[in-house]
């Protein structure tokens, strides 16, 4: 139940509140001016948080501290590294023990089919949702936003190296996929949990899909060129067969090359329109009141992120 007699959620616990996506979710929640935001932080963490955020320290080796931190919370939002496999089940069990009615598990990325997700991430996300349901206390809300646009573009994961002015097209570079900016994901989460509890039933134990843009690599490169005042002649442009690129990355992962994970993850979603989830799933942008975004501004943000030394 909600924390008050109203039909709205109020107390929101966020794990990873100072992180890449967590900080944008927190900003969007605070902008609503109707939530009490509680950052759940490891006891040894030195992270700092926005004004207006309550900080509660926990020790994951002492489950009681996590349960205590989550008592009275209406929602638990989990944002963390895809490799933090051990923490999420602990948080989910603690949420059930504390009676938290809603959990947003560590999604906030690309999803279309279980097959594609399990090919790359593995079954950990599926198991997290199954665990929430099996405990019989909380319900989950899954937010699929595609890969983060400014993050993925600035870091070269979309095959475009802004610093070196090199682009590798997967096949012809014309396959589109859905992608979202950090601010749009934050707005989506805040809008979702601002809905009346009675309206949230429509999304109970279901994935919800949002998107900022549906773009091909060629679309992205043209946007980067506009942002940097360059043309094709300023860039080294090559191509690779998408399925071979994916197969090569998977082989490297099997041999223990962890750096190949990102290459495999991104390439997988350029195969068979797997990353263009708007073709098979209705987008919730309009229902959540999300604004249409400016591709030029988002691309400039990606270019500036690369220039800022973020990836160093």
From TrEMBL:
- Molecular function (Gene Ontology), one example: oxidoreductase activity
Q: Which InterPro entries match?
A: NAD(P)-bd_dom_sf, NmrA-like, NmrA/Isoflavone_reductase-like, PCBER-like
NmrA-like domain location, by residue? 10-140
Where does the chain cross the membrane?
none
Q: Name one Pfam family in it.
A: NmrA
The UniProt keywords, alphabetically, are:
NADP, Oxidoreductase
> Key word Oxidoreductase present in the record?
yes
The molecule here is called NAD(P)-binding protein
């Amino acid at each position: 139940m909600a924390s008050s007699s109203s039909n709205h959620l109020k107390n929101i616990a966020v794990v990873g509140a100072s992180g890449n996506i967590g900080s944008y979710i927190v900003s969007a929640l605070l902008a609503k001016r109707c939530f009490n935001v509680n950052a759940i932080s490891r006891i040894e963490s030195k992270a700092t948080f926005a004004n207006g955020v309550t900080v509660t320290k926990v020790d994951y080796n002492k489950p009681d501290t996590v349960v205590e931190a989550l008592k009275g919370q209406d929602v638990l939002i989990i944002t963390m590294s895809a490799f933090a496999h051990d923490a999420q089940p602990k948080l989910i069990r603690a949420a059930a023990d504390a009676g938290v009615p809603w959990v947003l598990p560590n999604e906030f990325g690309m999803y279309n089919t279980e097959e594609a997700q399990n090919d790359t991430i593995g079954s950990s996300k599926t198991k997290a949702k199954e665990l929430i349901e099996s405990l019989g206390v909380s319900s989950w809300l899954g937010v699929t936003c595609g890969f983060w646009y400014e993050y993925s573009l600035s870091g070269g994961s979309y095959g475009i190296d802004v610093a070196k002015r090199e682009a590798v097209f997967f096949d012809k570079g014309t396959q589109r996929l859905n992608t979202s900016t950090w601010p749009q994901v934050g707005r989506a989460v805040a809008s979702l949990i601002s809905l009346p509890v009675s309206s949230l039933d429509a999304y109970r134990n279901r994935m919800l899909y949002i998107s900022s843009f549906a773009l091909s690599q060629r679309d992205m490169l043209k946007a980067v060129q506009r942002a940097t005042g360059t043309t094709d002649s300023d860039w080294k442009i090559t191509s690779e067969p998408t399925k071979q690129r994916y197969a090569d990355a998977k082989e490297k992962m099997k041999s223990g090359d962890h750096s190949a994970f990102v290459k495999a993850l991104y390439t997988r979603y350029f195969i068979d329109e797997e990353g263009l989830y708007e073709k098979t799933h209705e987008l919730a942008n309009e229902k959540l009141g999300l604004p249409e975004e400016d591709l030029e501004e988002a691309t400039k943000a990606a270019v500036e992120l690369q220039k800022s030394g973020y990836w160093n």
